[in-house]
Amino acid sequence: MSAMPSERPRPLRFTAFVTNAAGHVIQGTWRRTLARQPDFDDLEHWVRLARTLERGRFDAVFFADAAGHHAHCRRDERGYFEAGFQAPSGDPSVLAGAIAYVTTHLGIALTASILQEHPFNFARCISTLDHASKGRIAWNFVADDLPDPWAEEYVDVTYKLWEGSWEEDALRQDGRSDGPAGDGKVHRINHRGPRYKVEGPHLVSPSPQRTPLLFRAGDSEADRAFAARNAEAVFIRSPSLAAVAHDTADIRSRAASHGRLPGDIKFFQGLHVVTGGTEAEAKRKAAELDERTGDAAKRSLYMGASGRIVGTPEQIADELASWQVAGVDGVNLVNAGSPEPYEEFVDYVAPVLQERGLMQREYAEGTLRHKIFGRGDRLPETHSAARYRGAFVPQRA
Amino acid sequence: MSAMPSERPRPLRFTAFVTNAAGHVIQGTWRRTLARQPDFDDLEHWVRLARTLERGRFDAVFFADAAGHHAHCRRDERGYFEAGFQAPSGDPSVLAGAIAYVTTHLGIALTASILQEHPFNFARCISTLDHASKGRIAWNFVADDLPDPWAEEYVDVTYKLWEGSWEEDALRQDGRSDGPAGDGKVHRINHRGPRYKVEGPHLVSPSPQRTPLLFRAGDSEADRAFAARNAEAVFIRSPSLAAVAHDTADIRSRAASHGRLPGDIKFFQGLHVVTGGTEAEAKRKAAELDERTGDAAKRSLYMGASGRIVGTPEQIADELASWQVAGVDGVNLVNAGSPEPYEEFVDYVAPVLQERGLMQREYAEGTLRHKIFGRGDRLPETHSAARYRGAFVPQRA
Predict the structure, then answer these.
(1) What value of ipTM does the predicted structure carry?
(2) Which residues of B touch A131 (CB under 8 A)?
(3) In this model, does residue B72 exceed pLDDT 70?
(4) For residue B267, what are the CA distances in angstroms to B38, B249, B263, B300?
């Protein structure tokens, strides 16, 4: 799938990796006077960021989240709070409604763990958001080290609700018939599994995408196994260009064993970019960032990005072209602050990328899934969720 | 507390009772071609309604919700779907972010059952919204007939997180010290009850109100007992003017036994209003509504409102003045559609009410709680949640 260097490249996909907190992936960034928690508590911050990203033709804003604390810090959260590292942190789904309202094309990817919410209510919230955004919601699935069967059951319940509970024409629109959802076209799913008992029916009529675009990180063995079965977009942190081919081939071959096609999965590499008008300026900014973030910075940086690219917009474009050749479909852009580094990226780097064909100049029409895959609003038939289409329709005599 | 008829009245409080569904309280309203579910799935609908309500100086938009189906229809939800009665229905919290962004003063009251979400995550979502709205969130608590100790434990966990987990000055703002939430001023709550085990700490720094304004319906015995202990605003459906004094006195006397003061609770009567330029026009519209909604309308009407007022704006103002004299502090305005009846109310009824001093002409500054009670952003010391202030601060040597 990789383009030869001499060809005109396809555009890479871009997501902006953020959290609803002043201190995100890179520890210590709150120390910048530009990254104050009250700014992140203010919708204006997110509206400004979302409009910037849409102006730059980013595909989506990607909300990381940890509804609790990372396991290795569980016994001493004080360090998290004192470092301002993902704490305090607000619920990102609250921001999604406002971002959906002020944008037209930008996707909104929400991280949500299966520990956070019952799948019935979670599915309802996501469907409501997918309606409100006209089909621009993605879900980044997190399982918090829970056993794989639990995670699979959770997504299974959501697939049943999203894909199977409502027939396509169940919501009548003529305003004259007996009801808006009549004719017995809304079905219970009657799920009875080891963890969840969910009768249904789903409370929300089919949203533009039904199932949101499915994201998953691909780091651990469990992540990869799950991503191969379920994910349409995989967030990777390959440690080098050389590792990309191995990482993507590994997940694609697992996916093939589930009947999925190579083109069913897009890979987003986490990258951190520091730019400047000259290479020297970029290096100076990177050095300042190092100093500000202290010793822990390099470790925490790797929570979000495995590559760091420091240079002029042209140098950054060269690097991104190399990642594309290595097999990456998109970049999950990690930045050491918000919104300024994204504004710099949009103002200085994006035009160079667009000039070279490495970033889209205009959005495609349609839902987030259609924008990214170009083949319709809904999950493909090769996805396991597709088996629930029509599965709950009673046999008619 | 009631004003004599000869006095200039205090303004009544107004909330607009809506659901994130085409068919709300009054069954059959979806039949109007103006109430199509796709409109309710569109944020534009809610933005238009919110702006209308703010223009009319409503205190809040009040989202009813039922995350599931009403118990008496549980065994046959098909009737709900065929009647379009609260089904399909979307998650109202999704709308709150967008409404918070496009308004400045309007409160946003969200109904949420303790069955929907774990209190740790629920508290996080509400705190995020209270930040995003700058202190305009209310929570209408629903227990779905669960045992009272369960309901009390649920709110207790949220009170501990909201009032006790963070000290007031825990979020440092200077950008120079060791962290934004340091000095050990963020505390675990270590709640261990029969239903919930919640260590904390709360993930969100203190929002403007900390605990959102607490709403509760006051219909059943369990509702009243709970409201007396917890609610700041009680939604009543008194069947007559004469019943108001009894209903409010009953809840206030129960509240007194918990150390609460008469002024700690405001009562909102559910009322349905149909207006027109002349009495005849209003009556004709009411008759049309009757015909459209069919036989079930009178029964379902009583789910939201116990009084129906049909008449000219002046006649409606007379009626509302009578409710105020009877002891009502506010009106939860039920309408048979959205947004048109609210637009009519704002354009034709509100000016008459404002002329008579029965409705505010301008908003007070500050949070929703301060706007309604005029005594600060936070719960009063007489509320049971106040006992958690400072309760989790370790004893310092």
Answers:
(1) 0.92
(2) 41-42, 90
(3) no
(4) 34, 11, 10, 22
